[in-house]
Automatic annotation (TrEMBL):
Record's keyword terms, sorted: Cell outer membrane, Coiled coil, Membrane, Transmembrane, Transmembrane beta strand, Transport
Provenance organism: Chitinophaga barathri
UniProt protein name: TolC family protein
GO MF term set: efflux transmembrane transporter activity; porin activity
InterPro entries: OMP_efflux, TolC-like
Coiled coil: 358-389
Location relative to the cell: Cell outer membrane
Keyword check for Plastid: no
PANTHER family: OUTER MEMBRANE PROTEIN TOLC (PTHR30026:SF20)
Amino acid sequence: MATVLPFMHQKQTMKFFKVLSATGILLAVSLVLKAQHQPLSLREALSTAAAQAPALKVFREETNAAAKYGDLIKNTLVPELTAGYQAGYATYNNITGLTYPGLFLPISGPPSTGNTFDPVPGTVLSALLKWEPLTFGQRQAAAEKAASQYRLAASEYNDELFREQYAIIVTYLDAAYLYSLTRSYQGNIDRTKTGLEQALVLAREGLKPGIDTMQFQSALAQAEMDILTLRRRFFDQTAELIRLTGLSSTPQNIVLSDTAFIRELPGTSGGAETDPAHPALQVAVSRVEVRKASLKEVQREWRPRFDVWANAYARGSGVAADGTVTKSDGWSLSHRNYGAGIQLSFPLLGFTRTNIRKNQYRSLLKAEEARLEQTRLNLRTQLEKAQLAFEQNSEIARKSSVQTEAARFAYEGLRISYESGLVDYTRLMQGQLDLLRAEAAQAGATLQVWRSLLDISVAQGNIETLTDTLK
């Protein structure tokens, strides 16, 4: 006995360590699998898209660029100061000290007494200042137009964000709907397996023909194929969620954490009016403001221009005023000049062009105002249709739940009758199919109610109408 107990104790110890090792392996695998899964709620999908979706980054950066355009308009108040140096080699038959125009104010040199084709060098170093301190309202009009363009870019970003949120919610609703369908399809598989087991027992006892077992096996294979197809469609929707949100994951790793709501009906349809801050309305309003600012800018075209200039430069010439040629003096910058002045100009005949452009921009403004009114009308009609659809779809969903309960009750009665030998396989499977169709129809009807609520949220311009109802 003394020799057996240590051996038994050793075996129990080894068995304990094997169990412990197996438990550790299972726990590690479970943790790895859990780490790979990425829960994703609807609100997380919306916030993630707003932060990192590439499609939204496009509009965000375009808005930033529009803001810089306003800074450029303000920067025109800063004087322009240009420094330059030129060196040339030219004849001096008419004017000495020849320079290339653009950076220097011209100054004439002494004329030559005859035609001499012996070129001499000439140099010039200059600083030219140009300034428009007064624009008679033109700079202000340009700044107002730049500000309205920035507001338009910002409203277009908000509109794109709103559209992106709508696409994400639609995709999430479809994915949650498909996920809920898998429960019905899995229940259909379980019912078919139970029927197959019962058919095998009844066939062995001679109460049912053996063909029933083959029919149950065929129905089971079809049910398993159906759920695989359903899962593929579900992964298609999760892949679309990844694309819309910019997540770095795979469809198989996404776990929807908001799925319970799809089996329940929302209790309210929200408010009855469109929010004045609706993104689509704000885009239309911003376009009207841009047209108004553009018209104002055109109206201020036919105004004077006031310029201030100043010039300081030194020059050297290889020929003197008396015609003496000393080529080395061309590099010495021996003569220095400075000057300053103002210039007031006015396009006398520019009024015809300005009037044409005024009429053009007035028509463009009227077009944008009409588009704004049409947008208001569209949203009002869209809201009315969405509210009507919500009421009708809610009623359909309530009736579909009654249909599902009746189909489930009928199936249970047929199952008991089949086990008692009162009905055949065909009647039982028809009842089972009716139950599956009723469950799928109820899930689809519930989805339509949520989509109607989403349509109301879109027409109102407030996505929170839907997200606030989530549990």
